[in-house]
Hints:
- The chain has 181 residues and is of the alpha/beta class.
- The chain has a domain at 58-135: Nucleotidyltransferase, domain 5 (2-Layer Sandwich).
- It is 37% helix and 12% strand.
- The chain contains 4 helices and 5 strands; from the N terminus they run αβββαβααβ.
- The chain has helices at 16-32, 81-93, 120-146, 155-164; strands spanning 61-66, 72-74, 77-79, 109-114, 169-171.
- The protein has a 5-stranded mixed beta sheet with strand order 3-2-1-4-5, with helices on one face.
- Strand 2 (72-74) and strand 3 (77-79) form a beta hairpin.
- Helix 2 (81-93) packs across helix 3 (120-146).
Amino acid sequence: xxxxxxxxxxxxxxxxxxxDIAFLxxxxxxxxxxxxxxxxxxxxxxxxxxxxxxPIADRNILLVKLNARNELLVENSLxxxxxxxxxxxxxxxxxxxxxxxxxAPNRAVVSLHHDRGTSYQAYLEVYNExxxxxxxLWEEAAQNRYERPYEQxxxxxxxxxxxxxxxxxxxxxxxxxxxxx
Length: 181
């Protein structure tokens, strides 16, 4: 008898279901993956009204400008960022009772103007100093009025402190402050 060679089995793998499995894995990873989203700066905007804004006396406005060279100008005077917090606190509280400053802290407005060319880092440094000034004023007011840290006050007492010294930072649309140079 002749020895016939045995037929070998085909070693091919059925790849039809591989595409289905890959598709299911892709969907699984898309559904279960969390995507980090930049939150930006949390600012509560005032409610929109059709009525024109009431004019604010110049004495109640602290003008803070940040130009394209990241130079800080407070009331049109070149200032260092480290001095901004104290200057803001002095303006808001007006300890000397100056006629060129607000009569009460609840009338003070900090107006922040920045150039389109201002770096984000410089803007954040200035903004953080302004917020820190308000935080320190709230802490001092809480200590003076309630003899407790601001964070330990009830929400009602915190609201009273914030009503006496409201956080009012007016941000103008970015402009080309240095366009004329």
